[in-house]
Amino acid sequence: MTTALLYLLGVLVFVVAILVSIGLHELGHMIPAKRFGGKVTQYFIGFGPTVWSKQVGETEYGVKAIPLGGYVKIVGMLPPGAAQLADETTVDADGNTVTRVRKSNTGMFTQLISDARAAEWELVRPEDSDRLFYKMASWKKIVVMAGGPTVNILIAFFLFWIVFGTYGTRTIEPEAGAPVVDTVSQCVIPYSDEGRECAADDPASPASDAGLRPGDTITSFNGTAVTGWDQLRELIRDNADGEAVIGYERDGRELTGTTSTTVETRPTSETDETLRQVGFLGVTPTVELVVTRGGPLYTLEQMGVMAKDTVQALVTLPVKVYEVGQAIVGVEERAADSPVSIVGGGRIAGEVSSAEQIPGGDKVAFLLSLIAGFNFFIGVFNFVPLLPLDGGHIASATWEWIRRGAARLRGRPDPGYVDAAKLLPVAYVVASALLVMGVVLIVGDLVAPVATPF
Fold it and tell me: Which one of the listed residues 26, 120, 323, 351 is annotated catalytic?
């Protein structure tokens, strides 16, 4: 019963934290938009049917049924087309003058753009003329659109700062000094088969041939004094299949063993999984827990590394999602490093919270890091310069700023506003792709979840 309650608590904490993050993201757009004089008619968390809403001034605040995002409606995001200036002005049922901008088109994308403009301008009233988003200064548009993802990155920063400043980053590393042997492989098992028991036809490991045992301290390798595990590992790998004379200490006695290392296909390092042919001995060192704590600068440094990893993950995201699709249909196992949706994040939060073998402090640090990681990814992802993401609007406003600035410097007429509506076909394609990927990840998290050791 307690385990189930802890699982539910973990899921609830994660989901509420993500919903709060969504709300703050949208505030990051709404607050500067209003400060710059823009008109915001809607502020909603979620999509789909409205669960609750309240009108406050000119803005409707509310919650919708599907908690997978949110939005703010800023009036006048799209400028009118050049051929749409013959406006149809009508009066609605409340006696308000409404400007309708419509155009008949034959091309599919042209019609989509025209319809989008029409839907946008049906919300515009004559008194809104000076409050339209597209008329804002370019730098104000950038601030408004960058506000949302910047909030997510700031949330991530403060949460990571809490974790790094109190709990710290924890790594298992070889003990300092000459490496002490923790385990000795009795045979050579290919890297792709690691984890299985030795078979009768597996060759004996070089370490076993040399007579090494757990507890031995390796002091030299082919005449080179050994001072640490990283140095020894490089000596072994560079030795390929050559002879190896190993000096080691056992119970205060200096001993020597002679063997030949074996060439094996192994990862380049613990942080680089690129496989290459290297020498193999068959020992692992004793390890220790290393805790590193730091403040804001340390947090920024760590987030810089995360940013690099996140960009790399974004590049491979379509491939990773495709692999999740294969896991759904049973073609292959779900990879441990595959992306997850909010559903998968909630499940992981629940499993960690209910795992009896994890201390309470570790659980709190993990949940904070998980929430921070989601926020950081959302923030970086939204800066991708493609519509309908925030980065697409930022790119459009930046180009407008550059183009107008260049025209001023060259003494040429103002080229006018950049028409983001022309990029709507790209937005529809990107939105469709994001929808498909989102559905695949949610289904994958339900039927083929990422395996956890808890």
Answer: 26
